[in-house]
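Sequence in, structure out. Go.
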Amino acid sequence: MAKILYGVQCTGHGHAVRALTLARHFQEHEFLFLSQGMGAEVLRPEFQVVDCPNPESPIRNHRMAVAAMLYSTLKVRSQSRRIYRFLMEIADRFQPDVAMADYEFFIPRVARRLGIPCLSLDHQHIVSLCRHPVPWRMWPDYLGMELAIHSHYNRSTDYLAISFFRPPVKPRVKGKVLPPLLRETVLARQPCQDDHVVAYQGYTTFPEFFTFLKAIPSPVMVYGFNEDRVDGNLHFKKTSEEGFLDDLASCRYVVCGASHTLMSEALYYGKPVLCFPIKKAFEQYLNAFYLEHLGYGQFFTGFRPRPEIIPSFEAKLDSFRANISNNHFCGNPEVFAEVDCFIREKRLNY
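Output:
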């Protein structure tokens, strides 16, 4: 049995769901998680969690709040000495054998001080591990995120990026890219195709979003707003993992932001995706770019999407489904094997 100190980013649910899926699989090991907010809420019912602040990425009106993000980063960095002392005390009591981090700031640095290996396992490092053929107009955002990753999240000893798109890793970079890690409840369902569409927004969205959804000529199951009401063809549903996955596995297609977790789950079920990436969030843009580039769906960046988009998108559904069917979107066996190797050998097998 190994003791694993695991830092998890607190923004959104995707990071914590990924960490929870791993910890459930490796029940023979002991995990101590460090997170807060949404991350801690997801992990705490089943595992030990210590609250630890991390830089956040606030989303407002479907846009990355850059000033608020910088403020959060500076606030956490200003407390770093106190936080390091606290975490070193935690680590001294826990005596970890290895560390892991899902886009988390402190644990890779603590692992270095302890002299133990640290595995970075997330989606965001796909930005820095690989080269991407994005348009020139996106290069300022591309370089900005790459710089942020290098300055804040590049202190691990090994890097494993999970992604539904898998560009080659840069030469001489110590990292691997594998297909998505999916939660058990996703794998437990068999996809089918009913008449409805699923729409999901995990953050505050743009005002015209609902107007756009009303133009879809199908019932639309709307999640992310924790409401239970009907407005024309829009069926707002309360937060429910079971209900959401049932609707996702049986829908015609998905309308959403560009969250990697949701897009991966939709693609695993063979569902085309129409997405609206959050502005100034380059990772979401990159997800959307590859979605369209690989023929799995389409994306739009404006806040006033025209209803004419819908018939054009629906006319391509069969083509999207054919492209999706030719690819592999579940990397659980490969990811588990790599993590097992890291725990045993204290490094990935390059």
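Check: The first strand starts at residue 3 and ends at 8. Residues 3-181+331-345 form a domain with the Rossmann fold fold (CATH 3.40.50.2000).
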